[in-house]
Amino acid sequence: MSRSADRPGPAGPLRGVRVIELAGLGPAPFGAMLLADLGADVIRVDRPEGRAAGNPLDHRHDLLARGRRSVALDLKRPAARDAVLRLVDGADVLIEGFRPGVTERLGLGPDVCLERNPRLVYGRMTGWGQHGPLASRAGHDINYIALAGGLDPIGHRNGPPVIPLNLVGDFGGGGMLLAFGVVAALLRARETGKGQVVDASIVDGTALLTTILHGLRAQGSWVDRRESNLLDGGAHFYAVYECADGKYLSVGAIEPQFYHRLLDLLGLADDPEFLAGHTDRAHWPKLRKRLADVFISRPRQYWLDLLGGTDTCVAPVLSIGEAVQHPHNRARGTFVDVAGIVQPAPAPRFSEDQPTAPQPPPRPGEHGRAILAEIGLTEEEIERALATGDRGASG
């Protein structure tokens, strides 16, 4: 893996790693953001029109694009394609999130890129994967997690599954696993001098996230019915409860010491039903109703004052805005203000190479001329590479 301390990029453990990102939507930009957050120099190849189709955000609020430099290129033009290949020559990683075969048709597929740069890690992010009966089909997060078994277990027993935003598929099973695979392949390339293709599929990644459920199912501790299991809200001691003011409290008192402390503070320590109900599933539905009646009797702050400072595994269910203001998150700097927009800080934390706060998302094409000059293109070549029917922003 080629590394250079002279390459641009913020501080972090990936400083010196150069990534070429062919701009897309959702999971691939999230994976690239993770690499940029940790110090990689990520060059985003944007579309000349500025935004990928389907992106509802203007560039100032497209936080998944933070920390990048951007060049806007029409990849259907030979001069633009050649410019990308010149970028590939000096890169460690290329990331793309198109349907299978798209980059091959553009002349930017893995065979072409790896022939030019044998050390390159070529990261591919798709929903269904690079092969299989559904590989060429359109789809979105909800479809991928449905097929992987990640949607059905979430929700109430007598209702439909509840959509977990796009956190489980696009980001957890998609972009996060893409970034992990890219870093693993980078380590291998540094050892062997040989790059490879990383085939990251949201279906595969979501299935991986359900590994513990398969283990529970194999030993007979999981049934395929919502709100019937330890971690799906079936257990009264692992559930969300509404309080008198309409706010919610999360309770996760799984271990016996936490469960008994919870019962003690709620005045239920000597209740035989609750004592038996920690291990006997037959009691769970009734005890869930009893606890619901307890928590609905007082506002959330009452319960936080009673339980919040104890080992009862209780925490408030906060909105996005409330989470930003919580004292614990403020103390750790979990959220940062970047150019007036509050957003999650880079994670995880490092003792030696702590990443700096990310830079705002770039205007598409903002750094185009500088990037192309940096790889040795002449002014004439830069003009040809940036040319489009509607030139747009070119830096």
Automatic annotation (TrEMBL):
Pfam families: CoA_transf_3 (PF02515). It comes from the Bacteria. Residues 346-372 are annotated as: Disordered. This is CaiB/BaiF CoA-transferase family protein. It comes from Thermocrispum agreste. InterPro entries: CoA-transferase_III (IPR050509), CoA-Trfase_fam_III (IPR003673), CoA-Trfase_III_dom3_sf (IPR044855), CoA-Trfase_III_dom_1_sf (IPR023606).
